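Supplementary Methods S3. Input chains for the assembly prediction are listed below.
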Amino acid sequence: MNPSGVAEGLAAALEALILVASEPVTLAQLSRAAEATERDCELALAELQRRYCDSRFGIEIASLAGGYRFVTKARHHRAIGRFAEETFDVRLSPAALETLAIVAYQQPISRRRVSAIRGVNSDAVMRMLAVKGYIHPVGRENSAGSAVLFATTTLFLERLGLSSLADLPALAEFEPSVEVAESIEAALREEA
Amino acid sequence: MNPSGVAEGLAAALEALILVASEPVTLAQLSRAAEATERDCELALAELQRRYCDSRFGIEIASLAGGYRFVTKARHHRAIGRFAEETFDVRLSPAALETLAIVAYQQPISRRRVSAIRGVNSDAVMRMLAVKGYIHPVGRENSAGSAVLFATTTLFLERLGLSSLADLPALAEFEPSVEVAESIEAALREEA
Amino acid sequence: MAYEVKLDIYEGPIGILLSLIQARSLDVNQISLNELVTSFLAEIELRRALDLEVATEFLLVAATLMEIKCRRLLPGSEDDDQDEDDFFDERDVLIARLLEAKAYRDVSAVFAAMLEEGIRRVGRRVGFGPEVAHLVPDPLASLNAERLAEAYVAVLGRNEEPEMPPTHVTPLPRISVAEARRRIAEHLARTRRATFDEVVRDAEARLDVVVHFLGMLELFKLGEVDITQALAGAPIELRLLLESA
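Predicted structure tokens for the full assembly:
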């Protein structure tokens, strides 16, 4: 087989592997399964990704959550919405979004700690997020019996279109400005 | 847009639909979701299937069981086997066991309900159990569009050496032990 | 109230207070603590049926708010410095919590936008198709009926862990400030004079006392009662000024 034939065969194998994975597949996993170097895999993947960029394709290979994964192109979302099997509904309530934000930035974190930050019991919301697959238990605070700690999942990264947690918006940019702080303070200072 | 442009857009939409469907998609389903006639869909599908015949692709669109689905080409099965060995390690067993137990005792049951009982998203485990033939879809909750319900298969009964579901162990024998009751009580006390 | 704030039932007191403040900060000069407290108490009223833990959080915030309000109404109170320090600490803690809540709320709006975009590209979650099913190792190699039953019981048992343990059992205030005001007015209509202690003799919870106290201050503002207190800590005496209709 000539070199280009090898590369072509590798690309096809990687494509097959990415199809059967139900989560993003890492370069390391692909390299082991295809018995090829990571370098060769990267080249083949770049070729694959380029191929699917063509508008004739309704699908593409995205780099998400630290791996590669087949996804549909955005412009077909309405057709998919009509097809909606178990519904791909991901609309989250403001409370769920806030909770998710706290877990994302403070993970691993216990339910109790999330509740303390939000100032309201968040167990039900946390449970819902776990059932939906956005967060999952990753351990316990100290030992058996202590509070379960939660972290975000790869599904969370995928749905937000992030390749890793490092790509989350910097929280510092969302810290209230001095004016906001002052207006809140003023609200609590103003005489009746 | 010229006729071929329309067909191209349709083929891309069908491709996207087939990619995300967890069961083979019928022509009727595709036609409804893509808002195109079945005749147009058939033409676009033939074009799609032809495209993936090219050996550069590691995947193809098969028509089977009355529908269309993406499958991997046979020559990549060794690589997929290595990937499967690595992915489905022993860690999965407890999750698989729990999930199967819930389906066995509460069938027919939707994926969502199983996730709610386990408290973590169980879609991937449910799919894997279906792939291994332990469970299968048996209908929908109410009508088209509502959640698919799953039940255990005869293979499941065979593996357990049971002649029917009636032979599943009665649950009364497995009521929570004293230790479990005590640990729950302790948790309550600690909170107070 | 002229403010239409859509409040989420899971928002909690910090979230609600933040929403109320934000709705008003369109015009910072118009923010009135009085209104804020009134709106907040109205929200509490709406949430009476909520679980106890939520109630407790509401109480803590309400108590802080009311304390802030009382301090403003009675600027010349002669509390000692320690009290004053505690008060400012409490207020600062409340402000810090509001600011933290605001940061997460703002970033969660970005999450919402990202998710909105994310759902347009649906990932394949199908996993191994039937053509490669035989390659997947059996996840339940050592399956037997007893293990299955044990697993089922274990899952159900785990579910029984209380999600919202009944930790604090402080009840919500049973009455609103308006109602407290009416009760005080009724009391004074009968007796013309009373001490605050007499008015709140039947109050069961500390917050009920606070609510009555606010009611009393409102009556004072309306010019319906006169309030005197000889010394800090001495009984507060109320005297009816007008016959209520």
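The domain at 94-191 of chain A is CATH 1.10.10.10 (Arc Repressor Mutant, subunit A). The two ends of chain A are 85 Å apart (CA to CA).
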